[in-house]
Each structure stands twice: as structure tokens, then as C-alpha cells.
Amino acid sequence: MDKIAVLIPCYNEEKTIKKVVEDARRNLPDAAIYVYNNNSSDRTAEIAAAAGAIVRNEFMQGKGNVIRRMFREVDSECYIMVDGDDTYPMEFAPQLADRVLNHNADMVVGDRLSSTYFQENKRPFHNMGNSVVRSSINHPFHCNVRDIMTGYRAFSYDFVKTYPVLSRGFEIETEMTIHAVYHNMQIDNVIIEYRDRPEGSVSKLNTYSDGMKVLLTIARLFKNYKPLAFFGTLAGVLAVLSLIFFVPVWMAFLKTGEVLRYPTLIVCGFTMMAALLSLFAGMILSNQEKNTRRTFEILRNIVHSGKMADNQK
Question: Global pTM?
């Protein structure tokens, strides 16, 4: 098992990958450096190997698929994940590793948004999108993660081996953040500097389509992790709509003794039934969610015990 493993997912990063690998080696001289090539059509893999990295391939396209492969294959006490585009200075890597190795952090977030990101990033709507995503997670999940979309993070062995990667693309950062928050893992924030991509290096992130995937991922995980809040809110909305349309029908009935709008009354009845069903569904799923959380804690204890046994050998 490695002490520190640097994980670099790459797709067509031949202009920057050599510098990223060399910077990682200089700042973490004892770390194992892994470059996972995701069907690059340029010389990314060749340059990374020449720079001294361990190069492996993931043939299913998408950052989430690459991270699934990395987490499955690499065993380490501390994992440093960084993009291969040279936007994250490796000078901060020792700080991230220290939080995992010496302060029990499960995930350390390289916080760009508290530093130079808003000045360096020139891509339209990215600044606004990062702020929206941060608020969309911190408020519903009652946490204080300062940079949700950063690709610069450190992880513990326990996190990596108990984290089920479900996303395939760039929404992976959102998913892993919510996973750590939901399971009450220790999350630390380390403020880092950010620099925009060098000239000739092109971002693979689509502002609109990938941004929509991220927001849908937040909604999906909120439904899965907080079902009572999700379905309870839905039940409240349906109940209010039912009452809004029912009150005029009821008032007319009190005046005339007749139901003047039967279709509206019928729709109101079905809408209220849907509200009650939604509430009961939330209550049932909430109990299942608590059992899932208990199972996860048992699994995490097993994984941790296995790691401790390996270290003692």
C-alpha cells in the first residue's frame, strides 16, 4: 500500500501533463503518481510515462468512470486527486495530505473560490454556476463546503473504499461531496490558488449541459439521502394546491347547497390523495435510509479494520 498516491485523470492534456507530473514529484517526492488516460487522441499517455508517472487506461469515457477505476485499483493511505490541466498548483498538495494523514480528515477540499478563482476564470457563467451549486448543497444538507466543483482534493483510504461511484461525468465532484456530508465524514477546506488554463489548453466541461447534470445530480441525491424532506415538501405543495382550488368550490356549496364544479372537486380530491401518498412514501423511505446508513457504518468499520491489519503486517 502506498503512503500517498497522486491520481491524475487525463483526456488530451499533452500540453500540461508533463509539468503536472513533475510538480507532483517535486512537492511529494515519496508519492506514487498515477496518470489515468481516458481515450486521449494526443500524446498525453506517452508524455506522462516519460515524465515518470505510472500510466493506466480507462476506456469508458467520462471523468466519473476514470475515478471509479482509480479508486478500485489504487491502495493508499492518502489519495491526492488533481486535474491534468495545470490549473491547480501542486505546492498545496502537502497541506492536503497532512490533513488526511495527521488530522483524520476523510476528504480535503482544495478551495479555489475563497482565493483567485473568480479573477482567473474567464469562462462565462462558470463563476455564477459554482456559487449556485455551492448554495444548492450547503443549505439543504446543512454543511459548509466552500468549493463543490473543485478537482483538487485529498481522500482517506476509508472514503475511497466505501464510496460508490455512480456518476459518469463531471457531476462526480458533486456526488462525492454530498456522499461525505451525508455520512458525517470529516471534511476540511484548504484554500488554494487557482490559475486559468494555459493558452492552447481547452476545457472539457460544457457550461450548460454539464451544469444541468450537476443540478439534476443534487436533486437526485437530495431525494435519495433526505427522502422525508423531499417527499414531504412535495406533499405540502400538492396539499396547498388542492386546498387553493377546493376552497372556492366549498364556499359556493355553502351558499347554494350545490357543487357547481364537479371536475375541480374531483381533481382536488385526487391531488390531496397524491399528497398523502407522497408523505407516506417519504416516511417509509426515511426508515429505509436510516437502515442504509447503519449498514454503511458497519461497512466502514470493516474497511478500516482491514486497512489497520494490512499496516501491521
Answer: 0.82
The CA-based angle 172-178-184, given to 5 degrees, is 135
pLDDT in tens, the chain (313 residues): 899 999 999 999 999 999 999 999 999 999 999 999 999 999 999 999 999 999 999 999 999 999 999 999 999 999 999 999 998 999 999 999 999 999 999 999 999 888 766 666 656 556 666 778 888 888 888 888 888 888 899 999 999 999 999 888 778 888 999 999 999 999 999 999 887 766 665 666 666 676 788 888 888 889 988 999 999 999 999 999 999 999 999 999 888 888 888 999 999 999 999 999 999 999 999 999 989 889 999 988 998 888 777 776 6
| Nearest Cα to Cα of residue 78 among 53, 98, 60 | 98
- Enter the C-alpha cell of residue 221: 441525491
Task: With beta carbons less than 8 A apart as the criterion, state whether 137 and 178 touch.
Answer: yes
What's the CA gap between 97 and 86, in Å, rounded?
A: 19
| Cell numbers 381533481: residue | 267
CA distances (Å), origin 93, targets 17, 55, 152: 16, 20, 9
- Residue 5 phi/psi, 5-degree rounding, is -120, 130
Instruction: Give me the half-sphere count of Cα atoms (radius 13 Å) on the Cβ side of residue 259.
Output: 8
